[in-house]
Amino acid sequence: MFSSILRKVFGSRNDRLLKKLRKNVDAINALEAEFEKLSDEALKAKTDEFKARIEKGETLDDILVEAFATVREASKRVYGMRHFDVQMLGGQVLHQGKISEMRTGEGKTLTATLPTYLNALSGKGVHVVTVNDYLARRDAEWSNQLFTYLGMRVGCNVPGMSPQQKREAYQADVTYGTNNEFGFDYLRDNMAFSPQDRVQRPLNYAVVDEVDSILIDEARTPLIISGQAEDSSELYRRINTIIPKLVQQEKEDEEGQEGDGDYTIDLKAKQIHLTERGQVHVEEILQQEGMLPEGESLFAAGNISLLHHINAALRAHKLFAKDVDYIVKEDQIVIVDEHTGRTMEGRRWSEGLHQAVEAKEGVRIQNENQTLASITFQNYFRLYNKLAGMTGTADTEAFEFNHIYGLETVVIPTNRPMQRKDMADLIYLTAEEKYEAIVEDIKDCVKRGQPTLVGTVSIENSELISRILKKSKIPHKVLNAKFHEHEADIVAQAGKPGAVTIATNMAGRGTDIVLGGNWQAEVEKIENPTEAQIEKIKAEWKESHDAVLASGGLHIIGTERHESRRIDNQIRGRSGRQGDPGSSRFYLSLDDALMRIFASEKMGNMMKRLGMERGEAIEHPWVTRAIENAQRKVEGRNFDIRKQLLEYDDVANDQRKVIYEQRNELLDEGDISETIAAIREDVISSVVDEYIPPQSLEEMWDVSGLEERMRADFAVDLPIKAWLENDDKLYEEKLRERILGEVVDAYKQKEAVVGEQVLRQFEKAVMLQNLDSHWKEHLAAMDHLRQGIHLRGYAQKNPKQEYKRESFALFSQMLEALKVEVITILARVKVQAEEDVQKVEEQRRQADDVPKNFEHEEANATPEEASDKVRTQVREGAKVGRNDPCPCGSGKKYKQCHGKLK
Questions:
Q1: pLDDT tens by residue, 438-450
Q2: What share of the chain is helix, strand, coil (3-state, %, to 5)?
């Protein structure tokens, strides 16, 4: 009550914001007469004048009034359309990075030209985001006339364009496109091979049309680029036949003592290392099999992939045992958890190990569809420096816009007072009675010549109503949001006298329904129309327009309440544009999904007790209010789902930012030798720590193990034992420095042989290749983690916290593995010429040259049952005490039998 008194005195926040903005509108109107006197050349020259003023230090806010006045005058000359004052208000709201709620028919497309022009003056680019390709093309084509007149370039970004065409579209001052395409381009840019392959500029300012549809309805599902993992099944099978020919060596090679085996096993680290003899043996076998060219080394730059397969197959055969580490079930390898002994359905080992085990057991080798990159719309659009949106229905979701995107919603008043009559809902007992009443209403409208738009919540529903109308012989058109361009034409003519159009709520959005039909669309159908023909069409339209006004304007029939009030408001908003008359009514039945959930049996029983006859309906404002309350509950639940998706994706987003930032730095840097040197120091230090624990006694040092590890991983033969025997003062710290120095010297010798430029290129190629492959593996691991994380609730743990903790651990492991792999490859690979670098580059390109799927489909953050609530385990039957007889019937006490502590 107190807040309502304050609102009456001071006005709502919305009123106060609009009051401030009206001062600028008055200033723009004051300039109108002056700008009308300007010649075309003088008006066009304003663009360069504004750009020069911005360069001198003026802000966009400083030139807002003049820029808006320029666009209004240009629009009058190009389109013959003058921006209304309310459109000036909407334009300012968009410039401030807020959401402008403007009713259908208030001219949002024209309004958007104001902030788009103003922000494009900065030269950083503006993205106008629409819901489908047709609208992107249509709006780009339409606005191109205005922006070209003002000396600006317009680009259109739609699927199927070449990288060069996309680059040109993004270099334009204003770029129109769909939300999906902007998002996929961002992901593709972060998978690029070189800086020249990128298409987007830094994300500056976006105006999102139908912002509720894009940032809310589509935000429950992430954008995913996935590709089939490389098909190496034949290679796995061939390598699998080589492993039985290799012989195990018990002890690692030592100085002066070479064994006669091909590989050694480190059970502690679950790793296998090829001996020098083994390396030669494997090369001979591969050459015999025709898999390795004669005289070429297994460690040559072009054979890294082959070496990877050999290692995977060795581990599969010698470290992983059937019925211990895995079982074979229904032609599949199912992993057994080493801690619990339970099978882990759906989980797969990474780094090619799972495929190697499949080859070993002779089951079908599966090629996985691997996630290459993904992002949610929430996290994509939050990357823009400034974000704004416009729609006819945002106020009901204002809290979510503010909470997730930091966007305030400002409701813009209509240019003319709203005349549409929104009638109370009619509730019937059965769906059959409801459809009968709808048909009667449509018949009445057709008889009076009133156009009708029937809104449905699903394609199935719209087809059902279409069949009923066909039986009643009522001519009509059906729209299902499948063919946007064709549907826009139908929607444009849905205002003709007596027209009946059935549409799902989303069909034909972005096109106004003009009462009497759209005379401009009729003119466009005629080739080179004469003035007489145009005048005739206008006269016919005027007659139809007046007839529709007399019949009561466009009548909206809602066949069911949607679970969101916003969608209901969208269908209602198609009527009553620009002060036109109109009406709307929703027809409901107790069989509707929303009514079944919330009205339950109580209302049905009450209606029967009241003795309601067939065809009778309940109509009362209380009932309508009760339904709106039910919708609020569903909206709240859907908001929680989107919020949960975002909270889970935020964890991945922090990691994504780190990786993409690192990757972009690598692409832009010509020389990454300093980065490599720092990583090398970390890796060598970690390896030394494993064999010589920090601040430990000499008795705890495993010197021979360290020597073998340095030989196997870094291709350096270090007589560490001899160093220690010859120098009593060689302590742990100095020993570390000496080992690192030797590794660095060996690397410098390699650099001297192949040349600095070749090695710099090779470092960059290896770093990028390994970063990409590890990031893909990490995304797959994160997917697996997310699918099963909700089960932690049964252990009284918070799934979200567990997910954060484990994903951080996975990310840390991934970075460590990346460092080790990059340094070991650089140390062991024999680079002989620039061709070797090109081979690695070619491998990277081939790895990426697999068919990709661009998906934006239903993919919840966690399975449906995922929740942050801690689960309580429910026991079946009575609790068995520790001293009670065991239920198995053995006669022992429970604690001595099945309750025995293991």
A1: 999 999 999 999 9
A2: 55, 10, 30
